[in-house]
Amino acid sequence: MRGIGNVLLFVGLTAMSAVALFTGSPVWGTIGILLFGGGGILYFVLTRNSGATTRRRPARTTYGHLPGMRRFTDEPAGLVFPGSRLSTVATLLGSLVFVVAGLAMVAMAFAPSASHGPAGPVLLFLVGLAGITVFSVFGVLALLALARGGNGIALVADGVYFRAPAGRAWVGWDDLKSVRLGDGIQFLVHSPEQITLTGLNRWLHRVNRDRFGMDVGYPTMLLKGDPGDALERITYFHSAPEARVSLRDPGTANRSIP
User: Fold this and answer.
1) Which residues, at least 6 apart from 140, have a Cβ–Cβ distance to it below 8 Å?
2) Could you write out the DSSP letters of every residue in 151-183?
């Protein structure tokens, strides 16, 4: 019900923006359509499988490697949970929509004949600039992820490697303290220096550890299929050191865990 309510909210706000567009407030109407229409589409795509009662297909698994993995391990291949290209495309398009909305706000702030409404030109400019800055970063990360390809999580005999738009992460099995499912698959190591992070993940490391009790997380919306399946496999190999050698066997991708 909550998901339906959110969709109806986006639809209602988009409809109100369309009314404003054709009844004398073209700039505010356009901004509203971009924000609420584009944001609603992005919300629907990214949360379509995230509800607690949603039945998701089993996580897709393959045997292979992810780009950049060999920088952290000598293992040539392992069990891979590939990332979802559709969610990355949705992130890119959603970011583009919000950047365009931000540009519209900035342009409106400098337009002498525009009606700035209760916000005023300075506030409108600052909000637009913030939107351009933040969503440009998200858009660039998504674009790089699409260009480079190969996002996902890889389990190899000596650790866990993942590659996401926000950067890469590597942690050895014995350094991993816990893994849980929250807004993403969240990894926590015994000591901060025991995990290797790149990109935005490295910059957010301290915040994630101090505020959210994790060192890094892989967004569940970027996985193909049920993230609970990936969590189950990670938890199993974390708690069963003797089973990790099986990650060198290509048949592991097709076998269920005991």
Assistant:
1) none
2) -EEEEETTEEEEEETTEEEEEEGGGEEEEEESS
> Which among 254, 245, 223 has a CA at the least distance from the CA of 81?
223
Is the overall model pTM greater than 0.90, yes or no? no
Helix (H) or strand (E) holding 239: helix 227-239
Using DSSP bridges, classify how beta strands 159-164 and 167-172 pair: parallel, antiparallel or unpaired: antiparallel
HSE at residue 140, side-chain half, CA atoms within 13 A, is: 9
User: What is the pLDDT confidence band of residue 83, given thresholds at 50, 70 and 90?
Assistant: confident
Q: How far apart are CA 162 and CA 185, in angstroms?
A: 11
158: pLDDT strictly greater than 50: yes
Q: How far is CA 91 from the centre of its chain?
A: 8
- List, for residues 32-42, the tens digit of each pLDDT value: 666 666 666 66
Residue 150 · residue 76 · CB < 8 Å: no
Q: If 0-12 CB within 10 Å is exposed, 13-18 middle and 19+ buried, where does residue 129 land?
A: middle
- Please name the residue that has the structure tokens 């495309």: 89
CB 152 within 8 A of CB 163: yes
Contact 82, 224 (CB under 8 A): yes
Cα first-last separation, the chain = 36
Nearest to 78 by CA among 235, 234, 225: 234
Q: Which helix (H) or strand (E) holds 11?
A: helix 2-21
Distances in Å between the alpha carbon of 32 and those of 20, 38, 68? 9, 9, 41
